[in-house]
Amino acid sequence: MSLPQQPLQLQQQKLNSRKELLLEVKNLTKYFPINRGILGREVGRVHAVEHISFSIAKGETLGLVGESGCGKSTTGRLILRLLEPTSGDIIFHGQRINDLNQNEMRKLRKEMQIIFQDPMASLNPRMTVGDLIAEPMEVHGINKGQNKDKYIKELLDAVGLRPNHMYCFPRELSGGMRQRIGIARALSLKPRLIIADEPVSALDVSIRSQIINLLEDLQEEFNLTYLFIAHDMSVVKHISDRVGVMYLGKIVELAPKPLLFANPQHPYTQALLSAIPIPTPGAKQDHIILEGDIPNPINPPSGCHFHTRCRYVMERCRQEVPLLKEKTSSHFVACHLD
Amino acid sequence: MNQFNNNREDVTPLLSVHELKTYFRTEEGGVVKAVDGASLHIRKKEILGVVGESGSGKSITAMSILRLFPSPPGYIAGGDILFENESLLTKTPKEMRKIRGKDISMVFQEPMSSLNPAYTVGYQIRENIMLHQKVTKKEALVHSVDMLRLVGIPSPEKKVHDYPFQMSGGMRQRVMVAMALSCQPKLLIADEPTTALDVTIQAQILRLILDTRDKVGSAIMLITHDLGVVAEVCERVVVMYSGKVLEVAYVKDLFNNPTHPYTQGLLMAIPRLDETRPRLSIIPGSIPNPANMPNGCRFHPRCQYTDERCRTEHPPLVSPKPGQWVSCWRVSGEKGVESNVIAATAATASTTKA
Q1: B240 close contact with A: CB closer than 8 A
Q2: pLDDT reading at B315 higher than 80
Q3: What is the Cα Rg of chain A in Å?
């Protein structure tokens, strides 16, 4: 399958001139094969992520938003190589990491950590909080012996828990506290990049703001870079510097936060933003309600994946895949509309 | 009575829940007070929002109305639920079955787990119609197709023969709404109907729920944790926390002038699309464990205004102004509100008797 390259150079030149890049993703693609029958013959492919490219500068927060099945979580897992990409390049700190072997990769993961959505499902219920936080350090053989307990207590303090929480089990803690442990685990190796995959979606409204503030404080304190994956536009708007909007495995719009929210260019972004209920009574009446459902990623629509639900659809959209192009300065849009 | 609404002629509530207490016995011999003295009412054709975080008792209140909570271990320890001036608590199970799905029906959060995977959606809608109305199979099928059309399912004549797994999440939720509306209920309880759905699909379902009220004329009790959804769809709001009602108000009043410290905190803590906040304000601490509730006001461990009285005594729900009810000592302690306490109690009492 040969699809035209996306104009990455431009985007990178711009960024390079400003800040040092920590992560670059070029034409990243992941297809999940569907095997059927006794021989396990491949009968189809789920087009989870298709030819996406973006980069994150040091200390930056890139938000990745989209609805379920758009490939945002898959992208996060591909970057850590928890899933193997079908094609494309992942360049971390100037090094292409696609071909690293398992050993090298394990060492590199010290630098890049992930926070998962559901803290109950990602913490071993039979381990104490102290053991849970120590586990990544044991895997990487750092902070052994007496130093360890002291360091764990420092970490607990950094994420807003008390030292004696070390001896608790996850079930004794609330959802918000468990998410703090997930964050402490990710922090324990002093990573440079943290991939936060829906870190606040499972939390209650009054707890959510605590965790968002914590993530912001830690970013400043430890000079962290975030890839913040979420479906909640208002959370992404709050925390990100730049935002990428995904639809059916593709990035349809990528722009600095103020540009994206003030002047969304892609019809999907416009619909997504207008669909979100705003907590001010009588604030909005001009909803763009998208008809129909998200198409099946096994057999995505031809041309622009969004054409089946787009209100501006033209003949060209059904035939030709739109490229992610820079419409105005650092505002990238994949749409045939001008 | 004009406490409730000044500009509406019809003020008799369709449903009123009065000091409801739904408790659960635990295996260790303890009691979890899931709903502990909650009062609310809903008028005909009204859309009432019930907001609260996990463990606030909002779903259990809904389940108590339809008596759907597991019993044992659950039981109603006190209070009353009046539907069209008749107590639902004294109904026999057989009488309750006649009410469920006919006068009061419910839409749940997860459509996949509330539809039977082994039957077509047409069969499941028909089942409800034939249970409550004297119609033939054929008539029921025609009615099912009409219902699917009403909720905006394309080519309903074909889709009526589909199984739930052949549909997307949004379509399944439409089927649930179609089923719930098939007997033109007077009250539709929607428990987090859009939480499991994507935002673009959520917008479709919310519009459907609004249309429903206009077309079928049902009152709607919308349970949610999303304040955006409340602002957009509801007319009045009930704010619940740890099994208690903390504030009741018209939507505009609640958002423009929140009175309870918890409501104030919640509104300040959410990130918003329509404004930029340099930093989110937080409500410290976490939601209390239902098996081990704090004494006094349930919110006092997290409240910035806590004083001695808050720690020992739960504040009564009083009405500082028409249409608004607040359970907070800061309000009930103020001058001039004392007289309203009595008025409020009288109003609730007369509602109960009416």
Answers
A1: no
A2: yes
A3: 21
Q: A223 near A59, Cβ under 8 Å?
A: yes
> Hey, what domains does chain B have and what are their CATH numbers?
13-103+185-353 (3.40.50.300)
**pLDDT at residue B50 above 50?**
yes
**B74 strand-pairing partners:** B24
Number of inter-chain CB pairs under 8 A, A vs B: 128
Per this entry, what is the length of chain B? 354
| Among the listed residues A110, A103, A137, A78, the one whose alpha carbon sits nearest the alpha carbon of residue A191 | A110
Return the SS3 of B155. coil
CA atoms of B301 and B316, how far apart (whole Å): 18
CA end-to-end distance (rounded Å), chain B: 10
Closest chain A residue to the Cα of B231, Cα to Cα: A281
Q: Does A241 touch chain B (CB under 8 A)?
A: no
Q: B12-48 pLDDT, tens per residue?
A: 789 999 999 999 988 888 888 889 989 999 999 899 9
Which tokens hold the place of B351? 């509602």
**Nearest residue to B146 via CA among B120, B113, B183:** B183
The pLDDT confidence band at residue B238, using thresholds 50, 70 and 90, is very high
For A58-126, strand residue ranges (E) read 61-65, 87-92, 95-96, 112-115
Relative to beta strand A193-197, strand A112-115 is: parallel
Task: Answer whether residue B262 shows pLDDT above 50.
Answer: yes
What pTM did the predictor assign? 0.83
CA neighbor of A31 nearest in space, from A44, A51, A43, A46:
A46
More confident residue, A266 or A17: A266
Rounded-to-integer distance, Cα B354 and Cα B248, Å: 21
The set of residues, in sequence order, having a beta carbon less than 8 Å from that of B280 and lying 6+ positions away, is A209, A212, A213, A238, B268, B269, B270, B271
Contact yes or no for A209 and B283 at CB 8 A: yes
- 3 state SS of B92: coil
Q: pLDDT at residue A3 above 70?
A: no
Handedness of CA A3, A9, A11, A16 (dihedral sign): positive
Enumerate domains of chain A plus CATH numbers.
8-111+226-333 (3.40.50.300)
3-state secondary structure (DSSP) of residue A149: helix
- B210 touching A (Cβ < 8 Å): no
ipTM, 2 dp: 0.78
